[in-house]
Amino acid sequence: MHETEGRKPPAATTSDSQRKLVILGGGSAAFSAALKAADLGVHATIINDGLPMGGTCVNVGCVPSKTLIRAAEALHRAVRPPPFAGIETSGKLLDFKAVIDQRRELVEGLREAKYANVIGGNPNITFLEGRGRLVDARTVQVNGREIRADAVLIATGARPSIAPVPGLESVKVLTNESAFELDALPESLIVLGGRYIALELAQMFARMGSKVTVLQRSARILPDETSDLTDALTGYLREEGLEIVTGVELLSAAEEGGKAIIRTRVNGAPRTFSAARVLAATGRAYTTGNLGLETVGVATNADGSIQAGETLETSVPGIYAAGDVLGENLFVYTAAYEGALAAENALNGSGRQRDYTGLPWVIFTDPQVAGVGLNEKGAAARGIEADATLLPLTHVPRSLAARDTRGFIKLVRERATDRLLGARILAPEGSELLMEISLAIKFGITARQLASSFHPYLTLSEGVKLAALTFDQDVEKLSCCAG
Question: Is the bond leading into 367 cis (omega within 30 degrees of zero)?
Answer without folding.
Answer: yes
